[in-house]
Amino acid sequence: MSWLKPLNPQLEDWRGKTAWVVGASSGIGRATALALIARGARVAVSARSREGLDSLAAESAVGLKNAGSGDGACVIVLPFDVTDRDAVAEAHARLEATAPIDFVLCCAGTYKPLRAVDFDLQTMLAHQQVNYVGVLNVLDAVLPSMIARGAGHIALTASVAGFRGLPQSLAYGPTKAALTNLAEVLHTDLEPRGIGVSVVQPGFVETPLTAQNEFKMPALITPAQAADKMLQGWARGAFEIHFPFRFTFWMKLLRIVPYRLYFAAVRRVTGL
Fold it and tell me: Helix/strand/coil (H, E, C) string of 233-244?
């Protein structure tokens, strides 16, 4: 039956493919880049931190040497600030000149816990520029060539924090909710053209950003575990990839709870 078919082309064999991971210097982006390289992909990595990208490249080189890989896997370092549209476009042009880009993961992000009683406009706008406008800058670069070829895959990293409003997520949550909506519209427009679109909805992952949280994070997983779940999702041709299920199941369920019950439950569980 057609409604059981995968929503995207299934990405199972990465050998010979060119992937671009934006936000690869740490956390989920770094782990995913390393996993793609290990699977034979030619991976371009981008972030503001040149040092973090060089460290990733060195680690991947050691891994490939030890594995005796000869399938074309490699890493290409393209540092830039995702909020700089011209820098994103320049990096894209350099990469596209060497080979068509088969896959793009937008993983660059910022997070600072914030509540309305401490409202800070600069913090709010910084989240918008990095988490949302940064993705738009990447889309501006990659969409024309993908549409012209009728091929490619775009993955956006949102968060369960975008499912519904949560305490401490005043700046972060709305940007992730926007990315989910953006991915839905992109899939509607691009799927008929042969271009895959997926949205990644992580729960709590052990990264430098979540290290700021002062509360116990339920179902906390490592970046490597997150990357494994993402690769499994792309292999299935999934549109939404959420993990870990033991946590995200309940977060997704909260989306349909009436507001009166939802607000009471959040206050009771968080104590905020």
Answer: HHHHCCCEEEEC
